[in-house]
Specification:
Helix content: 25-40%
Shape: globular
Largest sheet: 6 strands, mixed
Strand content: 15-25%
Number of domains: 2
Strand order of the largest sheet: 6-7-8-3-9-10
Number of strands: 20
CATH architecture of the largest domain: 3-Layer(aba) Sandwich
CATH class of the largest domain: Alpha Beta
Length: about 575
Amino acid sequence: MDKPILELRNISFTYPGAEQPVLQEVSFSLRKGDFVAVIGSNGSGKSTLCKCFNGLIPHYYTGDFAGEVMLLGESAEGKSVSELSRHIGYVYQDFENQLVRPTVMDDVCFTPLNYGLPDYRERGMRALELTGLHGMGREFIWQLSGGQKHLLALAGALAMDPDILVIDEPVAQLDPQHARQIYEILRRLNEQHGKTIVVIEHHAEFIAEYCRTVVLMDAGRLRWQKPVREALSSVEELLSLGIYPPDVTRAAWMLQPDRQAAAGYPLSSEEGRHCFSRRVSPADIQATSPQPQTSDLQSASPEAKPVVEMEHIRLSYRTIHKTLHPVLNDISLELRSGERVALIGNNGAGKSSLMKLIAGITAPTGGTVKVKGITVNGLPPERLAGIASYVFQNPEDMFIDDSVRGEIAYYLKARGLKDRDERVDAMLEAFRLQELAGRDARLLSGGQQRRVSLAIGAAVRPAIMLLDEPTANLDISTKQEMTRVLQTLRGHVETVVIATHDMALVAEWASRIIVMSEGRILADGGKDEIFSDGQLLRRAGLAETQLMEMSRLLELPRICCSLEEFVARSEWRKEELVHGGSR
């Protein structure tokens, strides 16, 4: 058997000020050509583990460190981050912070140039070609979409031709089309170029399709390392840790809970199609199926007054070449009290720009925006702070204080609210932040940072709350909890708007869905209307959830939006599962 390309031996690490170690005696090895997913709930130590690979821990992130790291058969002790990074490329969760030069070519060449490599330009061009960015070398960074920026960060890591690539949350901020593009590139790098790939991932469907082995982290300890089918078939164990296997896997487990996990459950929609066999007719299913609940329907009364009124809105910015680049094109829209609105569409569709107009962060090029009857155009955002609350996609953009409690209190104190201590305590409890109250939010995990940013936004109890990708970087368990938290906002906030690629969240939470593409509204309606139009979803750069796809493959009379609905609306024969061959 080949020797490990990377080996961690009894690694323990404690961040400064933390009472408990974030890693506890972790031993782990990678072999050349592996494609490994590291899973675990937020705060389990996944990112911290991977930062030990290239020496960021303990050289950059200081703390109490013990254990040994072996890279290519040699001890990493005494080696700098610079030396180790020649062999280990890293794409961070906040990948935009890795882009440091004005143009694509400058940025991709930056690292090999700083290492003094004479072929830095050839390395950069090859990396752009591998990531599908060939021909974009002269483009400015700020002109790129979110997906292209992510690919550029990956190209920057590839320019050093590393043995190992680590990607933290590859698809967290991407629309489904760009998410799949990232994974297809990783697959080619693994299979055709021999790169060893490690992904930190919450999306089980991608793990099932692309990865070979899975590492489970739990409270700072490595619980196990298993082949992907065996790992994702450990449904009961994963669910106990708040980790969710693919929906089709859970559906099969719910119907056959006593089946030996080692035999494996279906992992994909195609495997699920062979696994499940309908026993009753679609008409019978429709007749016996529960009708949509009130919560599934648009909850705004027709008589409800508009919270937001947008008339013929246009938004453009002037490029460096003095030309106007359109962002929003003739948007007219009303948002009413009681609505739970989801803005969906691909990266660059205009979702965030639309919300920033409502919050007063951006002024329109043309048209009028009114919030609660107040004309927002050009109004300073602080004048709207108690009416419209915008929660940024990158949580760190909202952090000012040196503790979580201080972060929430800062915004309440700035508004002069007398009950701020009670509000802070309420937010800490609602968002499960009590134990983190004294920690610096900038040192928390990505999911924990997201919860802090939502607590900040909710604390001022605005009329309308605008959330940009509220479930980005969260594990599935925390996403589901976030859905419940969004429901509790109804008593404090008139209208909630989210911009998201998380179709499962949209399916479970939204009462109204607005589909955007290229700065225009393509569709505006309820779940049944939007989700039944597969062509519309593809045009908007979106993808069906696994349950939606299963509903189509099994020719169910209605698209299922939740696992409970899928099981309740169907009668299945419990047949032997078909696995679809070896991986």
